[in-house]
Design brief:
globular; binds zinc ion; 6-stranded mixed β-sheet; 7-stranded mixed β-sheet; single chain
């Protein structure tokens, strides 16, 4: 570690020079800004055990913040000269400071958290009973007119005390007059009662549509579980509680404000949002309730509008910036066992290889359109078959319309092969892989077995190959706590004590890079965030303990003491 003393002016000057040197003419990357007020005192000086995630100065004792950015990082003595009478000092010498965490894949459904029936715990491992689910939905049914949907959210089929599948008959106990659905938190399977199936005209002889299934029980009757695209028939039936436009906007805003508080509580300072109401997001920011930075991933009307107007990835500012597209789905789910594998799922009869939800031709056309528009493509591809389809489409688009530094994003990118890794590296594609799953969903990996798990959530393989592997919780499917994610990356051991794919373990330092720098790289913002470096946005987290020295099984329990975004405390324990 090079420790040199600098005068104040020199230090600020240095930060400007260092920043200028860091600009590698990114195609659309956010540009750093040198510290503005050269002679002013620092706003904030922090003393702590600092892990910067900056290879040029990995460890530091102190840093200074001015106008929302880091302006100096070094020893306590280095920084002392920047303390003036208006400088706030935070002495956290017993604590650890790391850059703010980034979650590169989050559905940010704050309105669901606030307003809907939650039949499982969104944030932690918690087992529930089927009776508790029935009871909660019965209460809802009593307040709901017959014929109108009664919905439960955040169900997890492997967090049920009863240790059996939820089924149609359970949900018939909720109501025979309402269509009832329990949505798996994974987002790819749902459980329906008899009324819903009847209203949709689905019976035991209904064939499975392309890209989905109506599951049957051992006797051939409908079990109530419906997967992926087979669920589309339910969109057309039943009424839903409706809200007027003002109510919808208010729910969106309150939901975003609510989830923003949750994010900073867990140390997230940047979150890649899968869509959501862009206007509400700006209103929440305007009223001062947006505590984290957003990389907004568009789809539908917003994406079409961007293409029509010539708005590319990178447009926006340090709080709300347009990032990649939202995930364009190519296959099914990892946690719900519908992702597309090149080999049959172990132990399932008849042989089942998961669901492909998009044809190669449609995928090619979509990727070409987005790529040509200067927008970062992003597809949901879990299984090796789907990842291959994605890469094939991107390789094709690059041949037709070569573009440097496109960083195509692969959401999940769960099951890899050597050939896929080589092609991912060649494209500088960004896998945004599951984070908390290694801990939270270890109870599901038995469905894949150790052989496949050695190639799943392959952080070790990707980092060794020089790929910018990033973290994507996929909340609501996975809890978003970055420390839970880091623990899983480091140990590969789940809540149930089982270890899967230990060959993919990475170190604490590597897990930090994944959750900070690589997240910044994923949205072309590595020059403005992702490390504690002079000139970058002052986003950081104060931890009560050092993840490098605590028992690795306790990383997730480290207390977040303070989360700071742009030099301002967004959360304080
Ligand atoms: Zn997702």
């Amino acid at each position: 570690m090079a420790r040199q003393r600098h005068g104040r002016r020199e230090f600020f000057g240095l930060s400007g020079a260092a920043v200028a040197g860091a600009v590698t003419a990114p195609w659309i990357g956010a540009q750093p800004v040198a510290a503005a007020a050269v002679d002013a005192d620092a706003d904030l000086v922090v003393n702590a055990k600092v892990y910067t995630v900056d290879a040029r100065l990995p460890r530091a004792e102190a840093f200074a913040v001015k106008a929302g950015r880091f302006v100096a990082v070094g020893t306590t003595a280095d920084i002392k000269g920047l303390i003036g009478k208006n400088t706030q000092q935070f002495d956290a010498r017993q604590m650890t400071v790391v850059p703010g965490f980034t979650d590169c894949h989050n559905h940010a459904g704050g309105d669901t958290l606030l307003y809907e029936v939650l039949v499982g715990n969104p944030f932690e491992v918690e087992f529930v009973t089927i009776n508790s689910i029935i009871d909660k939905l019965r209460v809802k049914a009593r307040q709901t007119p017959p014929g109108t949907w009664v919905e439960g959210f955040f169900f997890d089929d492997t967090k049920v005390k009863d240790q059996r599948e939820l089924n149609r008959k359970d949900l018939d106990e909720v109501s025979l007059e309402h269509p009832v659905v329990v949505r798996h938190r994974g987002g790819h399977t749902s459980y329906y009662n008899s009324k819903a199936l009847e209203m949709a005209g689905v019976n035991k002889s209904t064939p499975n549509p392309a890209g989905g299934t109506f599951d049957r029980d051992a006797t051939g009757e409908l079990s109530g579980r419906v997967t992926d695209r087979a669920r589309n028939v339910f969109n057309r039936i039943g009424s839903r509680v409706t809200f007027n436009p003002q109510q919808i906007e208010q729910r969106e805003r309150d939901g975003l404000a609510h989830i923003s508080k949750q994010f900073v509580r867990y140390g997230l300072t940047t979150v890649h949002h899968e869509g959501g109401d862009l206007a509400a997001l700006q209103q929440v920011r305007a009223r001062g309730d947006l505590h984290h930075r957003v990389s907004y991933e568009s789809s539908g009307k917003v994406l079409d509008g961007m293409i029509a107007a010539g708005i590319m990835t990178g447009f926006g500012d340090d709080w709300i910036r347009l990032g990649a597209t939202s995930e364009h789905t190519v296959d099914g789910s990892f946690s719900e066992r519908t992702m597309a594998l090149s080999q049959p799922y172990p132990g399932i009869q008849p042989a089942y290889k998961g669901n492909i939800t998009e044809t190669q031709d449609d995928l090619n056309a979509w990727i070409e359109k987005v790529h040509r528009a200067g927008i970062q493509v992003n597809c949901h591809a879990n299984g090796d078959v789907a990842i291959d389809m994605f890469l094939t489409a991107v390789e094709r688009a690059q041949r037709l319309f070569p573009r440097q530094n496109a960083r195509p994003k692969i959401t999940h990118c769960t099951l890899i092969t050597e050939d896929l890794v080589r092609r991912i590296k060649a494209l500088d594609a960004i896998p945004a892989m599951f984070t908390t799953y290694a801990y939270y969903n270890s109870d599901k990996f038995v469905f894949y077995g150790e052989d496949l798990m050695k190639r799943s959530m392959a952080y070790r393989t990707f980092l060794d190959a020089g790929v910018h592997a990033a973290a994507g919780s996929d909340f609501s499917p996975g809890p978003f706590a970055p420390l839970m994610g880091m623990q899983g990356m480091v140990t590969r051991r789940g809540w149930d004590g089982k270890t899967w794919g230990a060959n993919q373990r990475i170190t604490v330092d590597e897990a930090l890079i994944v959750n900070t720098m690589n997240g910044a790289y994923a949205s072309f913002e590595e020059n403005v965030k992702g490390s504690i470096t002079a000139g970058k946005l002052a986003d950081f987290v104060v931890l009560a303990d050092d993840p490098h020295t605590v028992d690795p099984e306790k990383i997730k329990d480290i207390q977040i003491v303070r989360t700071v975004v742009g030099g301002t405390a967004a959360y304080q324990a």
